[in-house]
Amino acid sequence: MSSISEVPVRTAVVTGASSGIGRATAAALTAADFRVIGTSRDSRSVADPLPGVEYRDLDLASSESIRSFAAAVSDLEVDVLVNNAGESQCGPLEELPADALERLFRLNVLGHIELTQLLLPSMRARGEGRVVFVGSMLASFPLAFRSSYVASKAALKGFATAARLELAPFGVHLTTVEPGSIDTGLSDRRTKYIADDSPYRRAFTTTVAALDTKESQGISADRVAQTILRAATARRPEPLYAVGSRAPLVFAARRLLPRRVIESVMARSYGLS
After folding, report:
1. Which residue range is the domain that position 246 belongs to?
2. Catalytic center residues
3. Per-residue pLDDT for 54 more than 50?
4. Does position 4 have pLDDT exceeding 60, yes or no?
5. How many domains, in total, are found in the chain?
6. Which CATH number belongs to the domain containing residue 262 in this structure?
7. Strand boundaries in 1-75, DSSP class E
8. pTM of model > 0.90
């Protein structure tokens, strides 16, 4: 009687897996037969934990927490890392507090890069691995009063796009997924910085109201998760996957139209002109 060899279980790490895109991605990977480790700053407080997902503590603002987490999963041979967790922030550039900027970049960029650096050696040594950075279409189509958030997501894309050329020869592929407007309730959790007497208040209020409306009408987190799953399992992932907000059309327009025209269209769509 011939024996049937078992297919090795693939392991995925999803940061920020307690809600929104992270939770949907953890569910999609679990359904695709991955062993999924989902992170949260306090894994014991995750509401309605997903069946099959192993929740572990990870604070991306703490190097000690990142190193401890990486050490704890070092024997699992992580096949896929989805860098998703982060903060959404808005405010006039002139009024953004320095400590808020530092926190944002620590959470949205530097923490993910540090975690990626710690997990890459094992992937490279095995000759396979996928790292997916969850960015935002705002990195490709910047919006007023979102400069800090835009810059953090553009930084992630920059790391992924450049470093993919370093790692591809070792069978490790880096890619970025840029969602457009998503209906995840993020509007309620977005941090806002605007002075009571700010000269930007009227334009800021108009822009944020339009942003909230677009997000309430946006695509589901599940749809974004399916794109992330595709990026994580493709034999040769694309450098960039965009989903939502009529991505194919707007990216085609971005290639064909002058940058100033695109900027003007963005401004009008958010009530700024």
Report:
1. 10-269
2. 149, 153
3. yes
4. no
5. 1
6. 3.40.50.720
7. 10-14, 34-40, 53-57
8. yes
